[in-house]
């Protein structure tokens, strides 16, 4: 796992039908799926995957920003309790009735440089 964060961006909220999404990033290498996976382009260069049987969102890929990385909702894990978010990203896009008081860092965009997660303790896009 390269990083783990809550994403508050509008795109993730709409794709997940949820006020924010707990995500983590993994390298594409070695990542495989079993079962029927559908995909759609949610914006230019962005692919979102879902289970074709039940519709559960399964992944996010941005082929230009993170060409070798897949972002996965933590609640799809067999054991989501193993997940530990390290930050809030796109906190500037949060819904007005969301206020997180968990002490985690909050970023406008994906992190300090606004371009990509830099390590395990930073975030997504
Ligand atoms: Zn997002």
Note down, in words, how this protein is organized:
There is one protein chain. The protein has one helix spanning 10-16, and strands at 3-7, 21-27, 37-43, 46-51, 57-62, 69-73, 88-89. The strands form two sheets. The chain has a four-stranded mixed sheet with strand order 6-2-1-7. It has a three-stranded antiparallel sheet with strand order 3-4-5, with helices on one face. Mean pLDDT is 88; it is low at 113-125. With 125 residues, it is mainly beta. It binds zinc ion.
Low-confidence stretches: 113-125
Strand order of the biggest β-sheet: 6-2-1-7
Overall helicity? under 10%
Question: Average pLDDT across residues?
Answer: 88
**Shape type:** globular
Measured distance between first and last alpha carbons? 15 Å
Structure class:
mainly beta
Task: Give the SSE map.
Elements: E1 3-7, H1 10-16, E2 21-27, E3 37-43, E4 46-51, E5 57-62, E6 69-73, E7 88-89
Parallel strand pairs: 1-7
Antiparallel strand pairs: 1-2, 2-6, 3-4, 4-5
The site of zinc ion has 6 residues, from α1.
State the main characteristics.
125 residues, mainly beta, three-stranded antiparallel β-sheet, 30% strand, globular, disordered C terminus, binds zinc ion
């Amino acid at each position: 796992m390269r990083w783990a964060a809550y994403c508050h961006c509008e795109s993730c909220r709409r794709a997940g039908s949820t006020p924010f999404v707990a995500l983590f990033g993994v390298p594409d290498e070695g990542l495989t799926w079993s079962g029927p996976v559908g995909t759609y382009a949610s914006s230019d260069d962005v692919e979102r995957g879902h289970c074709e049987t039940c519709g559960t969102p399964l992944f996010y890929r941005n082929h230009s920003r993170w060409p070798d990385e897949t972002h996965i909702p933590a609640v799809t894990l067999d054991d989501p309790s193993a997940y530990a978010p390290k930050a809030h990203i796109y906190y500037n896009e949060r819904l007005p009735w969301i206020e997180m008081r968990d002490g985690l860092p909050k970023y406008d965009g994906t992190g300090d440089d606004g371009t990509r997660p830099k390590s395990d303790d930073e975030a997504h896009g």
